[in-house]
Amino acid sequence: MALWIQAQQLQGDALLQMQSLYGQHFPIEVRHYLAQWLEAQPWDAIDLENQQEEFKAKRLLDGLIQELQKKAEHQMGEDGFLLKIKLGHYATQLKSSYDPCPLELVRCVKHILYTEQRLVQEASNASSPGSGPVDGTPQKYQQINQTFEELRVMTQDTENDLRKLQHSQEYFIIQYQESLRIQAQLSSLASIPPAERVQRESGLQSRKSTLEVWLTREANTLQKYRQELAEKHQRTLALLRKQQTVIIDDELIQWKRRQQLAGNGGPSEGGLDILQAWCEKLADMIWQNRQQIRRVEHLTQQLPIPGPTEELLTELNGIVTDIISALVTSTFIIEKQPPQVLKTQTKFSATVRLLVGGKLNVHMNPPQVKATIISEQQAKALLKNENTRNDSSGEILNNNCVMEYHQTTGTLSAHFRTMSLKRIKRSDRRGAESVTEEKFTVLFESQFSVGGNELVFHVKTLSLPVVVIVHGSQDNNATATVLWDNAFSEPGRVPFVVPDKVLWPQLCEALNMKYKSEVQSDRGLSEDNLVFLAQKAFSSSSNNPEDYCNMTISWSQFNRESLPGRNFTFWQWFDGVIELMKKHLKSHWNDGAILGFLNKQQAQDMLMSKPNGTFLLRFSDSEIGGITIAWVAENPNKAGERMVWNLMPFTTKDFSIRSLADRISDLNHLLFLYPNQPKEEVFSRYCTPPNCMHVFSCRQKCHHMTVCLIVSTVLIITSNNQTPQSIRSHSCLQPIRRRNSRGLFIKNCYIFLVSKIVGS
Question: Which residues cross the membrane (predicted)?
Fold first, then answer.
């Protein structure tokens, strides 16, 4: 409701813009009487590109209709009678319009609320110029809006001058016709008597001389008007080009960069509504100036007057055509990128949008967009304008789509919903490069005309680099290629060049962004975590973060060369941690229960100063996607001596059987989570409740109880200073082994748990 109250205070152009949001598609009365309800609904929670969200949209549509009907029923009295009929009519109208496609209602309302919010925000900024930007609106936005106002005034000024020139020229032509008539009369005097001819000739010659003087003076004035008008257009086009550079080369490029970083887990790139509003204003003003220049050209052709204006007008026509061409081709963009790790024979989607499609009436004859996958070399050739027609590196199914115009939001876009990469043609690889380092891109292209076929555009845009895989096992390395490219590519690069080496702090920023996004946590990587990662990446022992600030890490160190003594790379190890955390342990990470990034020696140093039974959780150095429990306890082989024990790492497979919290609960010798938290305080809320055991079958219950018995028995024996060999043959365990000699599950549990506790 607060937004609608503020929207009603808008004035001038902002008020007109707000009013233009409403019509038969969504009456302003509905906005007024249901303001509170509309602003309270979760419109932003619905993904317009996901057809599965349609049931949510249908629920909102039904709710809107019910609210309207309820509002209508409560109208009383004479005035209320008319409103009751009107609201009832609107309920029927909206149901009829949006019932076949309720997502369109969501699109419409989101656009209305967003635009109102923007207009209110801009009005608030304008009313307090002394204060800084309101609600985080960048100062640059105010400068852009001020420049648009300046351009509007300049365009209106040239329009007024053009009308003045047109009127002056029309009057000049009338007077010129008059001079021709006088000349004709003088020529016809030869046929009349001399006395009368002298008298009439004198008057006509006088009028002719006066008119010729006026025509000469007025011709110079017209030429001056034309020259001044052309110079004004020159200044307007210069400012238009400057404004377009700010919007296209700065703001739109920044949006694309945010979109690229969002692929690494960065913040969402944000909506395109503000950018589209700016691009549409540009298109409007460029087209108005183009039409003005063409009208001046027409006037010049109608009444040729020698001078430099014609040459200047030809130059202006070329400039304005270049500007509109640059705007159209630059605003054909990919709103929703295809997946950057693309598996063959798998459906994927993408959305392409033309930000000026509504203003230039492209939607009157909706163009078709085609998608093609091309290689890095083909992309380079394309940007060099080399002939690459019909070149592709694979076959995409369902790769043609007609652009749709959404009248409620004014957007023209093509939604590719069911594309599938049928096959891929790879190039010859260089050196140590693997298939998961080869980059492709999806090329989207279309052709359309504007201004009644005056200008024809062939537009193209390239997706972010994609890595094509044929098996899920390649996903890990493909993701590394994408992460490196997204993080370190430069705007305007040659496709798809990235530096081979980057500073370690730069990589830390990318890793932290990816980790927080995948684990869905505000708790990112701490300075100590990053030092641990640096030690792993550089095989260093330094604990000083400053030692790594100026160090560089190469792509080979990141994901081509194995870590010393291991059969996996730095990235493969880190990605294994991410997979483990996001699938099973994100709650424990968010609680701070997992220290994770510690080596075995660090864990030992930390635990030896703590009471027996203190434990911590750290990621395994030797196994991808493994986490181990380290705890301090008495050494069974030396009385009075303590030592740190390490369980063999648990992996995703283990946690698919039994959760971390349940496993810690099973181990009675684990008492305190480092530094001194009782384990029940930290993990009990994640344990499987005892009353959930009824969901198991009788055999599963037996297995579960037997596993617990094995654990408890092994721990008791361990505490009595038994050797590993004697533990395995201990008489306490023989009944369990005999009782389950035919049960492979229990046998495996027995061997696995004994080895975990005594084999570390």
Answer: none
- Calpha distance 467→441 (Å, rounded): 8
| Angle at CA of residue 751, ends 749 and 753, nearest 5° | 65
Distance between CA atoms of residues 284 and 430, nearest Å: 49
Pair of tokens at residue 519: 């684990």
Which residues face 334 on adjacent strands? Answer: 352
Tokens representing residue 487 in the block: 């993080």
Rounded Cα–Cα distance for residues 719 and 708 (Å):
17
Residue 611 burial (CB < 10 Å; 0-12/13-18/19+)?
Answer: exposed
* Position 708 pLDDT exceeds 70: no
Peptide bond into 683 cis (omega under 30): no
Instruction: Categorise residue 41: left if φ over 0, alpha if ψ from -120 to 50, beta otherwise.
Output: beta
Mean pLDDT of the chain: 84
pLDDT in tens, 37-62: 998 888 888 877 777 888 889 999 99
**Maximum alpha-carbon separation in the chain:** 155
pLDDT, tens only, 604-627: 999 998 999 999 999 999 899 999
Q: How far apart are CA 597 and CA 412, in angstroms?
A: 48
Residue with tokens 């740190």: 644
Ramachandran region of residue 640, left (φ > 0), alpha (ψ -120 to 50) or beta?
left
CA 602, CA 326: separation in Å to the nearest integer? 59
Report the alpha-carbon distance of residue 534 to residue 548 in Å, rounded: 7
Which strand (E) or helix (H) includes residue 370?
strand 368-375
Name which residue leads in pLDDT, 13 or 414: 414
The amino acid sitting at 430 is: R
How far are the Cα atoms of 175, 204, 228, 303 from residue 219, in angstroms, in the given order?
A: 11, 22, 14, 10
How many CB atoms are closer than 10 A to CB 255? 17
Distance CA 306, CA 313 (A): 13
Tokens of 726: 């004697």
The residue to which tokens 């190890």 are assigned: 573
Dist. CA 247–CA 147, nearest whole Å: 11
Span 67-91, average pLDDT: 83
Residue in 150, 112, 146 with CA at minimum distance from that of residue 126: 146
- pLDDT at position 390, please? 65
Structure tokens at 164: 């003045």
Q: Which residues contact 492 (CB under 8 A, 6 or more apart)?
A: none
DSSP, collapsed to helix, strand or coil, labels residue 426 as coil
pLDDT at 387 (0 to 100): 64
- The number of CA neighbours under 13 Å toward the Cβ of 629 is 24
The Cα 144–Cα 244 span in angstroms is: 10
Residue 183 — very low, low, confident or very high, per pLDDT cuts 50/70/90? confident
**Reported confidence tier of residue 132, pLDDT bands at 50, 70, 90:** very low
How does pLDDT run across 731-748, given as a tens digit for each residue? 444 444 433 433 444 444
Q: Which residues contact 75 (CB under 8 A, 6 or more apart)?
A: 81, 83, 84, 87
Task: Give, in order, the Cα–Cα distances in Å from 249 to each of 244, 318, 403, 410.
Answer: 8, 21, 25, 23
- Which strands sit side by side in the sheet containing 455-462, from one edge to the other? 400-402, 368-375, 440-450, 455-462
Cα–Cα distance for residue pair 713/668, rounded to 1 Å: 11
Residues with Cβ within 8 Å of 49's Cβ and at least 6 positions away in sequence, in order, are 336, 349, 351, 415, 417
Calculate helix-pair angle for 102-127, 54-73, nearest 10 degrees. 70
- Mean pLDDT on 502-515: 95
Q: Is the peptide bond before 308 cis (omega within 30 degrees of 0)?
A: no
Alpha helix segments (H runs only) across 348-455: 376-383
